[in-house]
Structures are given as C-alpha cells and as structure tokens.
Design a protein that fits this description.
This protein is α/β, with parallel strands linked by helices. Helix content is 38%, strand content 16%. The chain has an eight-stranded parallel β-barrel with strand order 3-4-7-8-9-10-12-13, surrounded by six helices. Strands 5-6-11 form a three-stranded antiparallel sheet. The chain has a two-stranded antiparallel sheet with strand order 1-2.
Amino acid sequence: MYQLIKPLLFKFDPENIHYFVTRNLKRFNKFPGGKALSKAIWTMDDKRLEREVFGLKFKNPVGLAAGFDKNAEMIAEMGNLGFGFIEVGTVTPLPQPGNPKPRMFRLPADSALINRMGFNNLGVDVAAQRIAAYRKNLKKGEQALIIGGNIGKNKVTPNEEAVNDYIKCFDRLFDVVDYFVVNVSSPNTPGLRELQEKEPLMNILNTLQQRNSKNGISRPILLKIAPDLTDSQLDDIADIVKQTGIAGIIATNTTISRDGLVSAHKDETGGLSGKPVTKRSTEVISYLHKASNGAFPIIGVGGIHSAEDALEKLNAGASLVQLYTGFIYEGPGLIKRILKRLL
C-alpha cells in the first residue's frame, strides 16, 4: 500500500511531508482502534526475535535511527509500526532552529537522501519530558520500548567547551533513556567531526563514563561514527572503545562522499544516506568487528533497503540494525520483511 501512495508523497518537500505524515500518524493512533489496527498490521511479536545487547533486552533487532524523531514525539507510534527500539535526537542542551531551508533533498534515482538539517531540535528538556510522559502513559503490563538518547552539542558551542554540552544532555536524559549515543560524526554542524580525533573524543567519553552511575545504575554509552574514516582511524576507534570502556559503536552516520550519484540534487551539501552508503557502512562494521575480535557490540545503520541488506550487516558483525532512509523509501513493511527473514 505504501508504494501506491509514495509517488504522491514524493511530490512534496521532504521536510514538510515528514511533518505531515508524522502528525497524521499520531492522529490515526489516537482514533478508537487505530493503535490496535496499526499493531495488527505491522508488528511481529516472537520470542525468537528478542536480543540481549549491552545488558538490555530488545523485543527485536530492528530500530529507528536518530534523526527521524528528533524531539521524542513519535515513540509509541513508531513502536506500533514494529520497531524494536527507538533512538531519539540528536538533542542539544538548548533549542536550535538548524540550518536554513531547504535542507533535505531526495535523490530518487539513487534511492538516497541528502540532509543538512544541523541538529534542529527543541532542546534536551523537551525530549526528556516527552520520554518521561511516554513511560508514564504505558498501560499496566505493556512493555516499554528500548529508547536511546542521541546527544550532540549546540552549534554556537566551541569545540573546546563541547564536553559541557554532552554532560548537560547526559545528565538530563539519564533517568529516562536506556542507552546513550555520542554523536560527533554529523557533517552538518561546523567543526563537529573534529571531535572524532582521539584526544577530544577520549575526553568526552571518559568524562561521561565518570558520571555514568546514579543509585547504582549505569547506562550503556555508544559512539556513532562516520563512514568516511580510514582504516587507521577505525583502529583508533576500536582502541578508544577499549580504553574508555564504552558499550559499543553505531556504524555509520551519513557520508560526505558523492561517488557514483546520478540524481539532480547530487551536489547539495550535507550528509548522504541511503543505498549509496550500504556497502561502505557494512565494510566499517566488518572491519571493526574483526579488528576488535568482536569485543564490543555494533549497531549497523546505513543503506538498509531490504531484508538482505539487514542480514548482510548482521552477518558482518552487527548485533542490531537501524533504519531511516530505507524506511522512507520502502515504508513500514520493510521492518516486517526483515523480521520474517530473520525467523
């Protein structure tokens, strides 16, 4: 059904249609029987799909990547579409509007997107309040989704003070999320990727690890990396995970590469996602898995448009996978196809 309406949706601006679809999805789930119908059509509950990764129990291994639900508005609705976990954000300490519009572009001939959103979000306080409300509104016996908090720095914060922004987000979200993702790999905040260098990255991760205990509870901290890193930089990443003791890696974020693109918007600045990233993100997963001898979990994301794409990432060493651009191009049926294939 989604493939029938997709040509209509793709006639409109990507960012505007995103908000149109998500608003109406929320409305549908509020109608009497809407939530139940959504779950009946899209979700798949089977004990064989459960995964335990970095101490958390996931109902299935297919999650929604950060960037789709920046402000924690759609947690329940995305769960009703079959996702096993949701990653909200990227959130920053203070609200920020992001980069000037237009800032998201479809590349249909390449099954891809380019975005230069720039961490547009309502700030960490709003996200924290909404996640808390989601948990409070769960009915008795209803299982909560695993929720990750993807955290970043405000654009106006200089890199020398970036650690303070990560601390603020970490402390504010600690009581409401299940795991954290440190995002230093988006290409859309000036200078952010410089924080992927070993010294500043070690400082951020070690600082968060030192704060990672409250009433005897700690949260898994993951690092999201770019697909554009060299092998020697990936070796550094594996070493950083070992030295800091963080829980794992998310591979990968969007790429600045434009190799082989044919669509009209191929020269727009920003991060490229979708099928052009499929091969490279899987290569990064495989490299890190082998270089570390499987010492830490990896969440695989980047160009998953089919059940086969998901299986390739899992076979390369990923413990879980996430969707974003493939979800937009293929629709919610992609989640169920992946889960059926896994079974």
